[in-house]
Design goal:
By secondary structure, the chain is mainly alpha-helical. The protein is 59% helix and 7% strand. Keywords: Cell cycle, Cell division, Coiled coil, Cytoplasm.
Length: 181
């Protein structure tokens, strides 16, 4: 057994799905770099498993996925630097970081598109507060970790920010943070 099981009475991640994914990830990681393995840091970050009684502990699997994402991101960074060179790689990372910062410092309440008043989105106040933390990270090195970005949760709000836009920004922040480690 790769991971501990979820506590009794609690659902956990489907064991077969997790094991299959980990096997695919092992193959992709050890595959020829020029071949398309189908798994990269981004796909690991967005992987989801079905929940089952008696499944693997979500906490343990999530922690392993974060370590796996870090390993894939480091390998991807090394490959891109080898292909493009340091200067081009860091220029690309700086440009992406600037785009994130530009979005994060927009006026409060106007940082993302809003959903209709009849639809739930992310809390504007919660997202704006986290966007301020992101801006602080990119402007002055305020403490923020990939874990903080991966685990942030926002309350729902009618007429709130469009979730897909906020989620995309958070994925991009994580990608940049892992790229420049």
């Amino acid at each position: 057994m790769t991971f501990p099981r979820a506590r009794k009475g609690r659902p956990g991640y489907d064991i077969d799905e997790v094991e299959d994914f980990l096997e695919d990830a092992r193959r992709a990681y050890t595959a020829d770099p020029s071949g398309a393995g189908g798994i990269d840091a981004d796909s690991i970050r967005t992987t989801a498993f079905s929940m089952r009684k008696g499944g693997y502990s979500t906490t343990h699997v999530d922690a392993a996925l974060e370590r796996l994402e870090d390993a894939f991101a480091a390998r991807e960074r090394e490959r891109r630097i080898a292909e493009q060179g340091d200067e081009a790689w860091y220029a690309e990372a700086r440009a992406t970081a600037q785009a994130i910062l530009d979005r994060s410092v927009r006026p409060a309440g106007k940082r993302f598109a809003r959903v209709s008043v009849f639809t739930l989105g992310y809390s504007v106040r919660d997202v704006d507060a986290f966007a301020d933390r992101i801006a602080g990270y990119f402007q002055s090195g305020t403490a923020l970790t990939p874990e903080d970005v991966r685990t942030v949760a926002f309350r729902p709000q009618r007429g709130g920010y469009r979730e897909s836009q906020v989620d995309y920004l958070l994925d991009t922040v994580t990608r940049v943070m892992l790229a420049v480690r």
